[in-house]
Structures are given as C-alpha cells and as structure tokens.
Design a protein that fits this description.
By secondary structure, this protein is α+β, with helices and mostly antiparallel strands. 41% of the residues lie in helices and 19% in strands. It has two domains: 71 residues, Arc Repressor Mutant, subunit A (Orthogonal Bundle), CATH 1.10.10.10; 172 residues, Beta-Lactamase (2-Layer Sandwich). It has a six-stranded antiparallel beta sheet with strand order 5-4-3-8-7-6, sandwiched between helices. A two-stranded antiparallel sheet has the order 1-2. This is IclR family transcriptional regulator.
Length: 269
C-alpha cells in the first residue's frame, strides 16, 4: 500500500552516525503510516535508501520489537516496543517535569494561579502548581485530590473521554446529579474548556483546558482566581492566554483542543 504522506528527509552526511539515522527515519515514516504500514520498496523510496541496507536496519529494529512485519501483506509497522517507549515517556509521573514550563508560561501570561492535574480513579490529582506574583490563598496543594466531577480540571479531562452514561454516573457519585454532569461535560467538549464557580471553595473559581495526546486527555491545566474576577470577558481573556502561551511549551505529541487553538469561545459552561 502506498503512503499518502510526504516523503521523509533522507539520510545525509550531516548525521554523526548514518546507521542510527536510518533507523530513526524508518521509525518516523512508519509512525505516519499507521496500522497499514509500508512495504520495503515504498519505505526505501521515501527515505532514499538502498533496499538491502534498509532491510538490515529493519531486521535490527524487529529484533528489539520496535518494528513488526505483517505476515499477510509483508508491510512493516511500528512494534510494541515503540508504543511502550512513548507510553513510558508520557506516564503520569513524568508529566509534571514535561509540562512545568507550560504551567509557568500560562501563569505568567494570565498573572493567575495555575494548576496541573491528572485523573486518578474518580479524582483529580494535583501534580504541579505555579503561583502568580500576586498572592492568592486557596485550598489546593500538590498531591491533593478532589472529585473530578466538581473541579474544572476534572471536567476538562472527562469532557474528552469516551464515557457512557454508567461511567458518568460513577464519576458523578454523590457529588452532583448525573444529568447535570452530562450537560457540563457536553458544553465543555464543545467550547474546549470547563469551569467551576465556588463549588470547592467560597469566592474561588476556575477555568481548565485538557491536554490531549492522540485525542485522549493525559492531563489538564487550570487557572484559578477570585470569583469576582472570573467574568465572561475574563474567561475569553484566559482562553486566549491558553492559546497564546501554552502550545510552544508542550512536548511533541501533546496539544490543546482545536476550539482553544482556533480562538473560539462561547458563553461560560
């Protein structure tokens, strides 16, 4: 099967080790090909490599599980080891380090308190926090947990998960009616961000945006501020702050919802 994507850059004298360069370029090309994979001839054409040399490179990658060969088509596809490497890199325990610069950038852009959280069971676990120059006393702390259903962070994450009604009911628990949570998640999914207004602490409101990888939320970032400041106009400013400050600081493969990047906005969820 012929790939429709653009040919990858070929190896050249600029590489300090051509054999490694060949392997990396092959992995990059196969990652773009998806489950269909690529034949040896197609891959060699894309990379501008000799088929015999490329075959040896692919054999080494197969030996380590980074490449598999479809027994029916003969096409080469990414192997389980490549997926495991990516999953380990983006594991929850690594996210605070990978995303800290994005959290800092957002806090500076918005001049507000910013949190990073990951879903842990039915709760959000707060894994990073950056405070603005101006002081704001809130209940949050790194390592603390709150029900996902009642936090902007949790709603942002849940809004981009494929949940059936039974799952939503479990997340809602005794915290809120299932119907209300369904409505909140639908609105958040449409607008790209979620909010909560004084549901966890009197006088404090939050706006959160999920961080996606292959369409699945891996975490969320929230901006926390006094409720009196969180007007619809301020919400629009904060959405713009996400779009302006965050993308450049995200690791490859993690991105914001299209609605945020495109600058779309809507009345507060």
């Amino acid at each position: 099967m012929t790939s429709t994507h653009e040919p990858a850059p070929t190896t050249g004298s600029g590489s300090p080790m051509n054999s490694v360069d060949k392997a990396l370029l092959a992995l990059q090309d196969l990652s773009r090909a998806g489950r269909a994979g690529l034949s040896l001839s197609t891959l060699a054409t894309h990379l501008g490599l000799n088929k015999t040399s490329l075959h040896r490179t692919l054999a080494a990658l197969r030996h380590r599980g980074f490449v598999d060969q479809d027994p029916e088509t003969g096409n080469y596809v990414l192997g389980a080891a490549a997926a495991a490497l990516s999953s380990a890199f983006f594991a929850d325990e690594n996210l605070p380090g990978l995303l800290h610069t994005a959290v800092v950038a957002l806090s500076r852009e918005a001049d507000e308190l910013v949190h990073l959280g990951v879903l842990s069971g039915a709760e959000m676990l707060y894994v990073d926090k950056v405070e603005p120059a101006r002081s704001l006393r809130v209940w949050s702390a790194v390592g603390r947990r709150q029900p996902a259903a009642t936090t902007a962070l949790g709603r942002a994450v849940l809004s981009h998960r494929d949940l059936d009604r039974v799952s939503v009911d479990l997340y809602a628990g005794t915290q809120m009616p299932t119907e209300r949570l369904l409505d909140v998640l639908a609105t958040a999914r449409t607008h790209g961000y979620a909010t909560e207004d004084q549901e966890n602490e009197q006088g404090i409101s939050c706006l959160a945006v999920p961080l996606l990888r292959d369409g699945v939320p891996v975490a969320a970032m929230s901006i926390t501020a006094p409720s009196e400041r969180m007007t619809p106009a301020r919400h629009r400013e904060l959405v713009a702050a996400f779009a302006h400050a965050v993308p450049a600081h995200l690791p490859a493969g993690i991105y914001l919802p299209d609605a945020i990047v495109a600058g779309r906005d809507a009345p507060s969820p």
